[in-house]
Write a structure and sequence with these properties.
13 strands; alpha/beta; Rossmann fold; single chain; 2 domains; six-stranded parallel β-sheet
Length: about 400
């Protein structure tokens, strides 16, 4: 079995941005004779939420954790006052709040390398600091192959949606260019993001590929602990966080839902939001939507159980260029659940996937009337006819990642 140093920063019990690296690592070791040795950070002020239900997927892995290096005092409070004086300190958070973790990570990586044979290095970002750790390791050990896994675009965002200064963007573009230039292989989560990256950095075309997110069949094997108390109503459920441009998508959905209820006051439909959806909850209260329930943050097992017992799963993006090439891991969990999907999303990666596999009703975030019509259609769906989703089985994705690792180490 070969060892790969698995640099992710985020790792359970952190519960945001960990699904892909956790599931890939799980099946790389189980099915493909690759042993991920995980390098991450511990408790972080910028990732305060935890979910211990993830740990069942990681208990067979060797995990090394260090201090995270982030500080709200240094990176948020002090910079606010300095900006008022005209002093900008973006370098404290370039490329992200964990830049000071780099020193701790490199020290731990050197310890791991001194005690075990490392056949390859894998870095997954965000946090993008993970890639800077990989870059330094590559420069220290140029013979060791390195895979850069891009879960989100880095500097390929539309600048109108970025709060970063031009100087900060320029510095991050230099960092990204160096990372991609020295990496042995780059994996990206969807085709649109991959082509964006290849267009900006043409030299990666021959050493890059798309490996999408995937769902884990084992997540759906056990019987749900949640029971339905009323089967006479259609239960529509959203699981996840509402943030950024997706707040506008959620607001559009709730306005359309209000319109739907006004036109269908006896409609047997209830809607639930599970996760950090406080802004959406505020909008729902303002609209008087008593039929919408908010459960707040819950662990992943509860969210999966609610997906299993729901009739329709709600997927929401915003109306921005960033959302057009977004393919969140949640979308693939929904596919794994096998339920009808109502997607409030712009035309892009997510809607293409749903059109390909079927079983979804879609509406644009800017089209209130269209969303209301989609709600009516989705609420009457009793079953779903869906094409093959096995291509999004995370075991297949781990097989694709294993092939990349074999290719660069042969």
């Amino acid at each position: 079995m070969k060892n790969v140093l698995w640099v992710t920063g985020l790792w359970p019990p952190h519960n945001v941005g960990i699904g892909r690296p956790v599931k890939l690592a799980k099946y790389l070791k189980r099915n493909h004779d690759w042993n991920p040795i995980v390098l991450a950070f511990g408790e972080s002020v910028h990732r305060p939420y935890v979910d211990y239900s993830w740990e069942k997927d990681t208990e067979h892995l060797e995990v090394h954790k260090t201090k995270p290096g982030d500080s709200k005092l240094l990176q948020e409070t002090i910079p606010i006052y300095l900006r008022r004086l005209g002093v900008h300190v973006d370098w404290w958070t370039v490329p992200d709040p964990w830049i000071r973790w780099k020193e701790h990570a490199l020290k731990e990586a050197k310890y791991i390398i001194s005690h075990q044979q490392i056949d390859a290095v894998f870095t997954s970002g965000p946090p993008y600091t993970c890639h800077l750790v990989g870059l330094q390791l590559k420069r220290d050990r140029p013979w060791c192959p390195w895979v850069v896994d891009c879960r989100d675009v880095w500097t390929q965002t539309d600048k109108s949606y970025s709060i970063k200064s031009q100087e900060q963007i320029g510095r991050e573009e230099e960092m990204e260019g160096a990372v991609l230039r020295e990496a042995d292989w780059i994996t990206v989560v969807n085709d649109i993001a991959l082509e964006m990256l290849r267009s900006k950095f043409p030299f990666i075309r021959e050493k890059s590929s798309c490996i999408t997110h995937g769902y884990d069949p084992e997540d759906y094997e056990r019987e749900p602990l949640v029971e339905r108390t009323d089967d006479s109503r259609c239960m529509m459920t959203y699981t996840g966080t509402i943030y950024g441009e997706r707040t506008k998508g959620a607001e559009a959905f709730l306005k359309a839902l209000k319109q739907f209820y006004d036109e269908n006051p006896e409609a047997p439909l209830v809607v639930g939001f599970i996760g950090n959806c406080r802004l959406a909850e505020k909008t729902a209260k303002e609209l008087g939507l008593w039929q919408v329930h908010f459960s707040g943050l819950q662990d992943r097992e509860f969210a999966l159980d609610m997906q299993k017992v729901s009739d329709v799963l709600l997927f929401i993006l915003g109306d921005s260029p960033l959302d057009e090439h977004a393919s969140p891991g949640k979308l693939f969990d929904y596919l794994g659940a096998g339920k009808p999907i109502l997607a409030v999303a712009p035309e892009g990666v997510a809607t293409r996937i749903l059109e390909k596999v079927g079983g979804a009703v879609t509406a644009h975030p800017s089209d209130i009337d269209g969303i209301a019509q989609a709600i009516e259609v989705a609420s009457k769906l009793e079953s779903v006819e869906r094409g093959s989703v096995e291509q999004y089985d995370v075991r297949e994705k781990s097989k694709e990642m294993a092939a990349v690792l074999e290719r660069i180490t042969e």
